[in-house]
Amino acid sequence: MRSGRILAVIVSLGVWGCALEEVTIVDVEDVVVAEVNVQIGEGLFGANRVTAFLHRTIGGAGAGFHTVPGARIIITREGGASVELAETAIERCVTETPEDGTGSCYWMSPSVAATFHPGERLQLRIDLASGGTLTSATTVPGDFAILGVAEGGQCLLPPNTPLTVYWTPSEGTWAYVNETEIVGIRDALAPLGIEVEHDPLQLLGLSISASDTTIVFPGEFGIFSRFELDQALATSLQDGLPPGTRAPVMISATDRNYVNWVRGGNFNPSGVVRVPSVGGDGTGVFASTVTRTFEVVVNPDPAGGLFTAPACPSS
User: Fold this and answer.
1) How many domains does the chain have?
2) Does the reported pTM lie above 0.85?
3) Which of 46, 73, 163, 194 is exposed most, by the fewest CB atoms within 10 A?
4) What is the largest CA-CA distance in the chain?
């Protein structure tokens, strides 16, 4: 890391004349930030994924100087086996970057990532090409299962019917992040005069403790969008999904590192407060999650004919 010092001369005017006072102003450090994620289970991205997104803060670096190429990133598993991540296209790590920002992406081949499993203890070491080392550790949350629906399967839900989703506890998790993408909702609600800006409609829910293993779909998935959703749309979602829609449902058990890094203004009145889990010559997070997925489908009117999935479990 590098920091610079600038000497500024301030003219202080007083009743008895003027004096020169020397003040030292410290530049913001140019810090390497590592965001390393171990994702177990299907979820939005498919199979297991292990990625590392490395970037720099802009302080003292100059516009556009955000990449961290040439790093050597090693994840060591229980038993001592080590896997090195390979540098790859940035799109494999992030779907979008801040304006005028970029970074460097590293990933693990899908065949190797597929061997990682819930409950595993992992060690991280990053050796920077410019010198310096970052280290961390995570314990992947324990395995769990959604009750009443096969992993990766479908279930048929009657129109305008809430679904209570239950799952078994995940050992070691700090919170469950619950996601869905409702497909076809714009056309389904148009006859009712309800406008939907985005289709698929992405919604996020949260279960804030390891023992909180239930959530109502879809009404409780919009907790972080309650001030953004149209009121008529939000009210409609409390009753369930309209006919002709479908939605993958993802329940993710997250570790302590993940929760401390992503927690935001909803839990901290002062705004986003990121607690890093990566130390050494930089900062960042080494997070792990376990995701379980199923899809809810709703037949269009008149009922029947389109989907042949088994019925969703009744509450």
Assistant:
1) 1
2) no
3) 46
4) 92
